[in-house]
Specification:
Number of domains: 2
CATH architecture of the largest domain: 2-Layer Sandwich
Structural class: alpha+beta
Strand content: 5-15%
Radius of gyration: 24 Å
Largest sheet: 8 strands, mixed
Number of strands: 10
Shape: globular
Number of helices: 19
Strand order of the largest sheet: 1-8-7-2-3-6-5-4
Oligomer: single chain
Distance between the termini: 63 Å
Bound molecules: adenosine-5'-triphosphate, magnesium ion
Order of helices and strands: EHHEHEHEEEHEEHEHHEHHHHHHHHHHH
CATH superfamily of the largest domain: Beta Polymerase, domain 2
Length: 392
């Protein structure tokens, strides 16, 4: 496909939404004689009139050449995918070298470090809306994949044959659901068909990459629609078979209510605000709570700890041995502490010294989340918040 060029009068991108550090990186690479563009999600978001949360840059400079341009502010990272991080104070701009890939080869990609042309780099990206290049210095969009038109039409389309592209990297199936959940775009029917034939391949992907995409979605403000799609597409069944069972029972309504509440908390306070342990607890708590409420007599605290521990084992660890330990332990603390903050026995005076616990703030934030669903907890939340602020 011959590339299409779109100028300012076509795209109306506002360069003032671009991080000045990204502009500096582009300028310096150009001055050193290299080609460099803004790529991927950043360009997509600019075209959708959203402020991008990060800016990725692709360039003809090889990693060592990027290092030579930026010297000490540049760190080369990654093995499967080598790239450069350029640091400006707390901001990091990711710069990668144009890569080639064979979009007609259905073998699982293990390394992705073969350098290529801008066109090859566009063709190995996942979806057409993510395959656009933008040069803010001359205001041009370069489109090798038809992404500009697809974005206008709200169409999510894989670059190339979706079956081959999903086989090459099954994480792309999860990414497809992610963009559908976030933007509500229509998915190209061919890609839906391909997902149907390829879903089992997800087992071949690195668990760390799969988990990272799922955590990013929990943080995105669109986790509720995302989990609907994950359950519907039967990918959840493959990744977390035990958890999946609950997503197909009446309790699913409560889980979705918790995800929705966490979406609204994340959206209110900006991107990535709730800790990953809180987001994990949002899925487990409704299930645990239902189980505990069924016990007669009501469980004492030791039993609650055991149930919480077993449930995390059953729903998360048994399906995913790589589930990060730190998140798991913190989630356990959040879950059990809910029954100190709002004990089953309402006549029991909770011990106020729990506010001294190091991770108390996570349990308190989770109580706030519960109060969004059950407003009667707001008073209790305010009470505990007061106690914890008195301490500090
Ligand atoms: P987000 O807004 O969530 O960051 P994004 O599209 O920017 O969305 P990233 O994970 O930041 O997602 O990836 C940046 C770009 O790299 C994508 O837009 C896409 O062009 C490319 N990309 C990412 N993951 C893949 C993949 N698995 N296969 C092919 N291309 C990918
Ligand atoms: Mg991105």
């Amino acid at each position: 496909m011959k590339e299409k060029i779109y100028t300012e009068k076509d795209h109306h991108i506002r360069n003032d939404l671009i991080d000045p550090s990204a502009l500096t990186v582009l300028k310096k690479l150009h001055e050193a004689g290299y080609t460099a563009y803004l790529v991927g999600g950043g360009v997509r978001d600019l075209l959708m009139r959203k402020k991008p949360k990060d800016f990725d840059i692709s360039t003809s400079a090889k990693p060592e050449e990027i290092k030579a341009v930026f010297q000490r502010s540049c760190l080369l990272i990654g093995r499967r995918f080598r790239l450069a991080h350029i640091r400006f104070g707390r901001t990091i701009i990711e710069v990668s070298t144009f890569r080639a890939g064979d979009p007609t080869d259905g073998e699982l990609i293990v390394h992705d470090n073969i350098w290529g042309s801008p066109e090859e780099d566009a063709l190995r990206r996942d979806f057409t809306i993510n395959g656009l290049f933008y040069d803010p210095l001359d205001h041009k969009i370069i489109d090798y994949v038809g992404g500009f038109e697809d974005l206008k039409e709200h169409c999510l389309r894989a670059i190339g044959d979706p079956t081959l592209r999903f086989k090459q990297d099954p994480v792309r199936m999860i990414r497809m659901l992610k963009f559908r959940a976030r933007f509500g775009f229509n998915v190209d029917p061919k890609a839906l068909e391909a997902l149907d034939g390829c879903r089992e391949e997800i087992k071949k992907s690195s668990p760390a990459r799969v988990l990272e995409e799922i955590f990013r979605m929990l943080e995105s403000g669109a986790s509720e629609p995302f989990f609907h799609l994950l359950a519907e597409s039967k990918i959840l069944k493959i990744l977390f078979p035990q958890l999946n069972i609950y997503f197909h029972e009446p309790i699913a309504e409560r889980i979705y209510a918790y995800l929705k509440a966490s979406d609204s908390m994340n959206a209110q306070a900006g991107y990535r605000t709730l800790d990953r342990s809180i987001l994990t607890a949002a899925m487990i708590f409704p299930i645990l709570d239902e189980e505990l409420k069924r016990l007669d007599p009501p469980p004492h605290f030791g039993e609650i700890i055991d149930h919480s521990h077993d449930m995390i084992e059953e729903l998360l660890t048994e399906s995913c041995a790589h589930f990060p330990r730190k998140i798991r332990l913190r989630c356990h603390f959040i879950l059990q502490t809910q029954y100190r903050l709002t004990p089953f026995d309402k006549n029991k005076r909770p011990r106020s010294r729990i506010v001294n616990q190091k991770e108390f703030i996570y349990a308190l934030t989770f109580l706030k989340l519960r109060a969004l669903i059950h407003p009667e907890y707001f008073k209790t939340y305010e009470h505990w918040k007061r106690l914890s602020t008195k301490r500090t």
